[in-house]
Design a protein that fits this description.
376 residues, alpha/beta, Aspartate Aminotransferase, domain 2, 3-stranded antiparallel β-sheet, 12 helices, binds pyridoxal-5'-phosphate
Length: 376
């Protein structure tokens, strides 16, 4: 049996390496390393895949979030609501831009931002909500959009973990994660469902004014060569990364469905185990299992993690600490007990190996070891 990895980038490279090598070589031959033709072509292809009017590529997913917030024209002190249970980047950009970070608890079942908690956190200074489609399943966008409309707020979707997930509206229409709010952002970090071989990111929007300004801000605020309209940043997707992403985009749906096969095997095997909860599936979203995250409810999460390690099975805690307890955010003056759901999740969650290259033998072995741990 192959060694088990959380994400097996090597096995994936072995599968599609010849196409990747060719794509990289063509960029080397052209030496168009910045803003080469592959960047535009990748944006166009992703735009079609996502069914959105504009895709603006940038240097990474954190920059995408920052650019999205920059384009809204917010003022220092304006409040931005996001979930306490996410990767640090989502919160970091809010603080970095001098905006007031307002954290709320997630829903304990599906890990995504709680709509009720958002409702309670809105004040006269609230300007934007940043839902995160955590672990590959969409937040409750229909209800969030309704709140945003009623309170005149912007919604920036952090879709870094949900590239390719579908959102199902109650009227029967479907949209891709990241294309529902005013702006959506994503990351092409190597381990993401659509990952490149370095850093990369993108923004989605159906608003032409936002699109134009985002494109400018991501390129030093440039209007035309050496004429500047906005204070910008240098955040571009490298041509080599774009060329790699063009190859990998073709496989995205297939890879996401392979992840679902693994998830179904896990779900079935763990259904009867009283000590763990499998990830909840919501009716309004597909799940692309960026992570397969269980909750261990008998206080033995860390023990299970160690046991798996001893059996050469990696696992990860996403996320071990709530954001409000990080030193950096002590200035927000939250009390330790302010976010009971986040705090509980941080002590119970465990993400299991999950990637499109997993072999049945590996999945069976992981399942056997986990059930054996709980039956001891
Ligand atoms: C990965 C990730 C990001 C940041 O992406 P980078 O490309 O690493 O900057 C932001 N938000 C979430 C939820 C992520 O998982």
């Amino acid at each position: 049996m192959r060694e088990i990895e959380m994400v097996d980038l090597k096995a994936q490279y072995l599968k599609i390496g010849s196409e990747i090598d060719k794509a990289i070589q063509s960029v080397l031959d052209s030496t168009a390393f910045i803003k080469g033709p592959d960047v535009r072509l990748f944006e166009e292809e992703l735009q079609v895949h996502m069914g959105v009017s504009h895709v603006i590529s940038c240097a990474n997913g954190t920059d995408a979030l920052q650019l999205a917030l920059m384009v809204l024209g917010l003022k220092p002190g304006d409040e931005v609501i996001t979930t306490n249970f996410t990767f640090i980047a989502t919160a970091e950009v809010v603080a970095l831009l001098g905006l007031k970070l307002v954290l709320v608890d997630p829903d304990p079942g599906n890990f995504n931002i709680s709509v009720e908690a958002v409702r309670k956190a809105i004040t006269s200074k609230t300007r934007a909500i940043v839902p995160v489609h955590l672990f590959g399943q969409c937040a409750d966008m229909e209800r969030l959009m309704e709140i945003a409309k009623n309170h005149n707020l912007f919604i920036i979707e952090d879709a870094a973990q949900a590239t390719g997930a579908d959102y199902f509206f109650s009227d029967g229409t479907t949209k891709k994660a990241g294309t529902i709010g005013h702006i959506g952002t994503t990351s092409f970090f190597p381990s993401k469902n659509l990952g490149c071989y370095g850093d990369g990111g993108a923004l989605y929007t159906n608003d032409e004014t936002f699109a134009k300004k985002l494109r400018s801000i991501a390129n030093h605020g440039m209007k035309e060569k050496y004429h500047y309209d906005n204070i910008g940043v240098n955040s571009r997707l490298d041509t080599i990364q774009a060329a790699i992403l063009r190859v990998k985009l073709k496989y995205l749906s297939q890879f996401n469905s392979s992840r679902n096969n693994v998830a179904e095997q896990y779900d079935k095997a763990f259904a009867e185990c009283p000590f763990l909860t499998v990830p909840e599936r919501v009716s309004y979203s597909s799940h692309i299992f960026h992570q397969y995250t269980i909750r261990v409810n008998n206080g033995k999460r860390d023990e299970l993690k160690k046991f798996l390690e001893s059996k050469k099975i990696p696992s990860m805690v996403y996320y071990p600490g709530p954001l409000h307890l990080q030193n950096v955010y002590s200035f927000l003056n939250y009390k330790e007990s302010d976010f009971p759901v986040t705090t509980t999740l941080c002590s119970e969650v465990l993400s299991l190996p999950m990637h499109p290259e997993m072999e049945k033998e590996q999945v069976d072995y992981i399942i056997r070891q986990i059930l054996e741990f709980f039956n001891k």
